[in-house]
Design goal:
The structure is a single chain. With 215 residues, the chain is α/β, with parallel strands linked by helices. It has two domains: 67 residues; 123 residues, Glutaredoxin (3-Layer(aba) Sandwich). The protein is 45% helix and 12% strand. The chain contains four helices and six strands, in the order αββαβαβββα. A six-stranded mixed β-sheet has the order 1-6-5-3-4-2. Helix 1 packs across helix 4. The chain is rod-shaped and about 110 Å long. 28% of the residues are buried. The mean pLDDT is 87. It comes from Streptomyces venezuelae (strain ATCC 10712 / CBS 650.69 / DSM 40230 / JCM 4526 / NBRC 13096 / PD 04745).
Length: 215
C-alpha cells in the first residue's frame, strides 16, 4: 500500500513538473512573439517615417523649384492676355503665343507630340488649361528633338510641335511665360516643366487636356 501511494505521489510530481515546464515554454513563446511583433512594428513605423520624410523632402524640392526664377525667362501680364473664345483668326504679339483670345477647342495636350505645325489658336487654349508647349525649328538638332519628344511623351499637360518661323531653336511656352534654350540638356527645361505644368499661372487648372483637337 505504501509503495502504491509513493508511486502515485511520484506520478503527480512528474505531471506537475511537466505542467510547469509547459507553462514556462508558453511564457517564452509569448515573449518571443511579442518581441518579434515589436521589432516588426518598429520596423514598419521606421519605414513609414522614412517614406513620409522622403516624400516631404521631394515636395520641398518641388516647391523650391516652383518658386525659383528661371534665367532669361520672359513674362507677360496674365491680366492683359485675352481669354475670349473666338472662331476667327487671332494676331498674337509673340511667337509662339503665350496667351490671348483663342479657339473654343483646345489641342490635345496629354503628352502629345505633333510632327506637323498646329494652329496657334488651339494651342493657346491648351496653355489656358495649364499645359506647357514645347516648340522647335530647323536649328534644333535631331537628337535634341528626339529627347524632348520622349520627355513630352511621358508628361501629362504637355504638347510639342514644330514652329519654323520662331526665333529660337527650342522654345517652351506656358500661359504668360516663355523661355528659349539651345539644346535639350539645358536645366531650364526641367525647371520650366516643374514650375508651369499645371502651375500657379494656369487660368483654368485641372481643365481637360484630352477630348480636344488631335491635329
Amino acid at each position: 500500500m505504501a509503495a502504491k501511494s509513493s508511486a502515485n505521489a511520484d506520478r503527480r510530481a512528474r505531471i506537475e513538473e511537466m505542467r510547469r515546464a509547459e507553462q514556462a515554454r508558453e511564457r517564452r513563446n509569448r515573449l518571443i512573439t511579442i518581441g518579434i511583433s515589436g521589432v516588426v512594428v518598429l520596423g514598419l513605423v521606421g519605414f513609414g517615417t522614412f517614406v513620409l520624410m522622403k516624400k516631404s523632402d521631394e515636395q520641398d524640392k518641388k516647391d523650391a523649384a516652383a518658386k525659383a526664377p528661371i534665367a532669361a525667362e520672359k513674362s507677360w501680364d496674365a491680366a492683359k492676355l485675352g481669354r475670349n473664345h473666338v472662331e476667327t483668326a487671332v494676331k498674337y504679339d509673340m511667337k509662339p503665343p503665350v496667351g490671348g483670345d483663342h479657339h473654343p477647342v483646345w489641342m490635345n495636350c496629354d503628352g502629345v507630340v505633333y510632327k506637323k505645325a498646329i494652329a496657334e489658336v488651339n494651342a493657346v487654349h491648351s496653355l489656358e488649361h495649364g499645359a506647357v508647349w514645347v516648340t522647335y525649328n530647323k536649328k534644333a538638332a535631331a537628337d535634341d528633338v528626339k529627347k524632348l519628344e520622349e520627355k513630352v511623351g511621358k508628361t501629362k499637360y504637355t504638347l510639342m510641335s514644330p514652329v519654323d518661323d520662331q526665333a529660337g531653336a527650342i522654345m517652351l511656352s506656358a500661359w504668360g511665360k516663355q523661355v528659349t534654350v539651345d539644346n535639350a540638356s539645358d536645366p531650364r527645361i526641367d525647371a520650366f516643366f516643374t514650375k508651369y505644368v499645371q502651375g500657379t499661372q494656369t487660368p483654368e487648372p485641372g481643365a481637360a487636356c484630352t477630348g480636344g483637337l488631335a491635329q
